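Quarterly update, task 2.4: N-oxalylglycine-bound model.
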Amino acid sequence: MTAIPAPGPPPGDNRLGAILDDLSGKGWSWQPDFLPEALYHALRAEVLAINAEDELAPAGIGRETAFQLDRTIRRSRIAWMDGTTPAQADFLHWAEQLRESINRSLMIGMFEFEACFAVYRPGEFYDRHLDSFEGARNRVVSLVVYLNEDWQAESGGALLVWPEGAGEEAPHVARILPERAGVVFMLSETVPHAVEVTHALRFGIAAWWRVNPSIQGQIDPLA
Ligand code: OGA
Ligand code: MN
Protein backbone atom coordinates (compact mmCIF):
# COMPACT_ATOMS: atom_id res chain seq x y z
CA MET A 1 0.00 0.00 0.00
CA THR A 2 1.33 3.45 -0.84
CA ALA A 3 1.28 6.08 1.88
CA ILE A 4 -2.02 7.92 1.69
CA PRO A 5 -2.45 10.90 3.97
CA ALA A 6 -5.31 10.95 6.46
CA PRO A 7 -8.64 12.12 4.98
CA GLY A 8 -8.95 15.79 4.31
CA PRO A 9 -6.57 18.70 4.43
CA PRO A 10 -3.78 19.44 6.88
CA PRO A 11 -4.42 20.10 10.58
CA GLY A 12 -5.86 23.55 11.19
CA ASP A 13 -8.35 23.26 8.35
CA ASN A 14 -11.36 21.53 9.81
CA ARG A 15 -13.11 19.99 6.82
CA LEU A 16 -13.89 16.82 8.68
CA GLY A 17 -15.68 18.96 11.28
CA ALA A 18 -17.64 20.67 8.49
CA ILE A 19 -18.70 17.29 7.06
CA LEU A 20 -19.92 16.13 10.45
CA ASP A 21 -21.80 19.40 11.05
CA ASP A 22 -23.39 19.20 7.59
CA LEU A 23 -24.46 15.58 8.06
CA SER A 24 -26.05 16.21 11.44
CA GLY A 25 -27.56 19.53 10.31
CA LYS A 26 -28.87 19.18 6.76
CA GLY A 27 -28.05 15.53 5.99
CA TRP A 28 -25.54 16.05 3.17
CA SER A 29 -22.17 17.67 2.50
CA TRP A 30 -20.30 18.72 -0.66
CA GLN A 31 -16.52 18.79 -0.35
CA PRO A 32 -14.72 20.04 -3.47
CA ASP A 33 -11.24 18.62 -4.01
CA PHE A 34 -11.37 16.38 -0.95
CA LEU A 35 -9.96 13.09 -2.28
CA PRO A 36 -6.15 13.04 -1.78
CA GLU A 37 -4.31 13.73 -5.03
CA ALA A 38 -2.44 10.40 -5.23
CA LEU A 39 -5.65 8.48 -4.65
CA TYR A 40 -7.46 10.55 -7.29
CA HIS A 41 -4.86 9.67 -9.92
CA ALA A 42 -4.73 5.98 -9.03
CA LEU A 43 -8.52 5.55 -9.01
CA ARG A 44 -8.98 7.57 -12.19
CA ALA A 45 -6.41 5.39 -14.00
CA GLU A 46 -8.27 2.32 -12.80
CA VAL A 47 -11.74 3.44 -13.88
CA LEU A 48 -10.37 4.47 -17.29
CA ALA A 49 -8.87 0.98 -17.73
CA ILE A 50 -12.05 -0.75 -16.57
CA ASN A 51 -14.06 1.35 -19.01
CA ALA A 52 -11.67 0.67 -21.90
CA GLU A 53 -11.81 -3.07 -21.22
CA ASP A 54 -15.59 -2.90 -20.96
CA GLU A 55 -15.63 -4.57 -17.56
CA LEU A 56 -18.77 -2.77 -16.43
CA ALA A 57 -22.26 -4.19 -15.99
CA PRO A 58 -25.53 -2.26 -16.42
CA ALA A 59 -26.56 -0.82 -13.06
CA GLY A 60 -29.81 -2.02 -11.52
CA ILE A 61 -32.16 -0.73 -8.86
CA GLY A 62 -32.85 -2.59 -5.62
CA ARG A 63 -31.13 -5.82 -4.77
CA GLU A 64 -31.60 -9.56 -4.74
CA THR A 65 -35.27 -10.43 -5.37
CA ALA A 66 -36.22 -6.77 -5.78
CA PHE A 67 -33.46 -6.16 -8.33
CA GLN A 68 -34.70 -4.47 -11.49
CA LEU A 69 -32.99 -3.22 -14.57
CA ASP A 70 -35.29 -0.29 -15.27
CA ARG A 71 -33.56 1.80 -17.88
CA THR A 72 -36.18 4.53 -17.64
CA ILE A 73 -34.97 5.36 -14.10
CA ARG A 74 -31.27 4.65 -14.17
CA ARG A 75 -28.82 4.41 -17.01
CA SER A 76 -25.19 3.86 -16.11
CA ARG A 77 -22.74 1.02 -15.74
CA ILE A 78 -20.92 -0.13 -12.63
CA ALA A 79 -18.05 -2.36 -11.46
CA TRP A 80 -17.98 -3.41 -7.79
CA MET A 81 -14.72 -2.92 -5.93
CA ASP A 82 -13.19 -5.90 -4.19
CA GLY A 83 -10.15 -4.16 -2.73
CA THR A 84 -7.66 -6.34 -4.62
CA THR A 85 -5.80 -3.59 -6.49
CA PRO A 86 -3.50 -1.14 -4.68
CA ALA A 87 -5.75 1.81 -5.61
CA GLN A 88 -8.83 0.05 -4.24
CA ALA A 89 -7.03 -1.03 -1.08
CA ASP A 90 -5.90 2.56 -0.49
CA PHE A 91 -9.41 3.86 -1.11
CA LEU A 92 -10.91 1.37 1.35
CA HIS A 93 -8.31 2.40 3.90
CA TRP A 94 -9.14 6.10 3.37
CA ALA A 95 -12.87 5.35 3.73
CA GLU A 96 -12.21 3.36 6.90
CA GLN A 97 -10.63 6.42 8.52
CA LEU A 98 -13.69 8.47 7.58
CA ARG A 99 -15.97 5.78 9.00
CA GLU A 100 -14.22 5.92 12.35
CA SER A 101 -14.53 9.73 12.55
CA ILE A 102 -18.19 9.77 11.50
CA ASN A 103 -19.10 6.96 13.88
CA ARG A 104 -17.33 8.62 16.77
CA SER A 105 -19.08 11.93 16.42
CA LEU A 106 -22.50 11.01 15.02
CA MET A 107 -22.91 7.72 16.93
CA ILE A 108 -24.30 5.99 13.84
CA GLY A 109 -22.56 2.64 14.26
CA MET A 110 -21.66 2.20 10.61
CA PHE A 111 -20.33 -1.27 10.10
CA GLU A 112 -19.55 -2.22 6.52
CA PHE A 113 -18.59 -0.41 3.36
CA GLU A 114 -19.43 -1.28 -0.24
CA ALA A 115 -18.24 0.66 -3.27
CA CYS A 116 -18.44 0.54 -7.03
CA PHE A 117 -16.98 2.47 -9.91
CA ALA A 118 -19.80 4.12 -11.87
CA VAL A 119 -19.55 5.23 -15.48
CA TYR A 120 -22.25 7.26 -17.25
CA ARG A 121 -21.95 7.52 -21.03
CA PRO A 122 -23.38 10.51 -22.89
CA GLY A 123 -27.18 10.37 -22.61
CA GLU A 124 -27.13 8.43 -19.33
CA PHE A 125 -28.62 9.59 -16.00
CA TYR A 126 -30.13 8.48 -12.68
CA ASP A 127 -33.60 9.81 -11.76
CA ARG A 128 -34.43 11.07 -8.30
CA HIS A 129 -34.03 8.33 -5.67
CA LEU A 130 -32.89 7.40 -2.16
CA ASP A 131 -29.92 5.05 -1.75
CA SER A 132 -31.46 2.92 0.96
CA PHE A 133 -33.70 0.37 -0.69
CA GLU A 134 -37.09 -0.70 0.54
CA GLY A 135 -36.70 -3.94 2.48
CA ALA A 136 -32.98 -3.49 3.04
CA ARG A 137 -32.82 -0.24 4.91
CA ASN A 138 -29.34 -0.67 6.18
CA ARG A 139 -27.38 1.78 4.07
CA VAL A 140 -26.96 4.81 6.27
CA VAL A 141 -24.37 7.14 4.76
CA SER A 142 -23.62 7.41 1.03
CA LEU A 143 -20.31 8.59 -0.37
CA VAL A 144 -19.84 9.74 -3.96
CA VAL A 145 -16.42 10.57 -5.42
CA TYR A 146 -15.82 12.20 -8.80
CA LEU A 147 -12.99 11.16 -11.10
CA ASN A 148 -13.37 13.64 -13.97
CA GLU A 149 -10.53 15.87 -15.08
CA ASP A 150 -11.66 19.34 -16.32
CA TRP A 151 -15.42 18.81 -16.17
CA GLN A 152 -17.23 21.45 -18.25
CA ALA A 153 -20.52 23.01 -17.13
CA GLU A 154 -21.98 22.34 -20.62
CA SER A 155 -21.41 18.62 -20.08
CA GLY A 156 -24.31 18.53 -17.58
CA GLY A 157 -24.25 15.36 -15.47
CA ALA A 158 -24.82 17.39 -12.31
CA LEU A 159 -25.91 15.80 -9.06
CA LEU A 160 -29.16 17.36 -7.82
CA VAL A 161 -29.79 17.22 -4.08
CA TRP A 162 -33.10 17.79 -2.30
CA PRO A 163 -33.59 18.59 1.39
CA GLU A 164 -34.04 15.66 3.75
CA GLY A 165 -37.48 14.12 3.30
CA ALA A 166 -38.45 16.61 0.53
CA GLY A 167 -41.63 15.85 -1.43
CA GLU A 168 -41.66 15.18 -5.18
CA GLU A 169 -42.60 18.79 -5.95
CA ALA A 170 -39.99 20.48 -3.77
CA PRO A 171 -37.18 22.32 -5.58
CA HIS A 172 -33.66 20.92 -5.26
CA VAL A 173 -31.25 22.76 -2.97
CA ALA A 174 -27.97 21.97 -4.70
CA ARG A 175 -26.68 21.28 -8.21
CA ILE A 176 -23.18 19.84 -8.03
CA LEU A 177 -20.91 19.33 -11.03
CA PRO A 178 -18.85 16.10 -10.86
CA GLU A 179 -15.51 17.86 -10.61
CA ARG A 180 -12.17 16.12 -10.02
CA ALA A 181 -11.64 14.76 -6.51
CA GLY A 182 -14.92 16.24 -5.25
CA VAL A 183 -16.69 14.16 -2.60
CA VAL A 184 -20.37 14.13 -1.56
CA PHE A 185 -21.71 12.66 1.67
CA MET A 186 -25.47 12.03 2.07
CA LEU A 187 -27.70 10.30 4.58
CA SER A 188 -28.84 7.33 2.47
CA GLU A 189 -32.35 7.00 3.86
CA THR A 190 -33.52 10.60 3.77
CA VAL A 191 -31.72 12.71 1.14
CA PRO A 192 -33.30 12.42 -2.34
CA HIS A 193 -30.90 13.02 -5.22
CA ALA A 194 -30.59 12.55 -8.98
CA VAL A 195 -27.96 12.61 -11.72
CA GLU A 196 -28.89 14.85 -14.67
CA VAL A 197 -28.31 13.56 -18.19
CA THR A 198 -24.61 13.75 -18.93
CA HIS A 199 -23.24 14.88 -22.28
CA ALA A 200 -19.70 13.62 -21.63
CA LEU A 201 -18.29 10.38 -20.20
CA ARG A 202 -18.76 10.76 -16.45
CA PHE A 203 -16.53 8.79 -14.04
CA GLY A 204 -17.04 8.34 -10.33
CA ILE A 205 -17.40 6.06 -7.36
CA ALA A 206 -20.67 5.38 -5.55
CA ALA A 207 -20.29 3.89 -2.09
CA TRP A 208 -22.24 3.30 1.09
CA TRP A 209 -21.70 2.47 4.72
CA ARG A 210 -24.15 0.02 6.19
CA VAL A 211 -25.24 -0.66 9.72
CA ASN A 212 -25.30 -4.26 10.80
CA PRO A 213 -28.93 -5.32 10.98
CA SER A 214 -28.24 -8.27 13.18
CA ILE A 215 -31.35 -10.46 13.18
CA GLN A 216 -31.70 -13.04 15.96
CA GLY A 217 -27.99 -12.95 16.54
CA GLN A 218 -27.17 -13.64 12.90
CA ILE A 219 -25.01 -11.22 11.03
CA ASP A 220 -26.61 -10.13 7.76
CA PRO A 221 -24.54 -11.60 4.92
CA LEU A 222 -23.21 -8.66 2.95
CA ALA A 223 -24.77 -9.08 -0.45
C1 OGA B 1 -25.81 6.60 -7.00
C2 OGA B 1 -25.81 8.07 -7.16
C3 OGA B 1 -24.64 10.11 -7.69
C4 OGA B 1 -23.57 10.63 -8.60
O1 OGA B 1 -24.98 5.93 -7.61
O2 OGA B 1 -26.66 6.10 -6.24
O3 OGA B 1 -26.76 8.68 -6.73
O4 OGA B 1 -23.39 11.86 -8.60
N1 OGA B 1 -24.75 8.70 -7.72
O5 OGA B 1 -22.92 9.86 -9.29
MN1 MN C 1 -27.82 7.54 -5.26
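Highlight for this quarter: The two ends are 26 Å apart (CA to CA).
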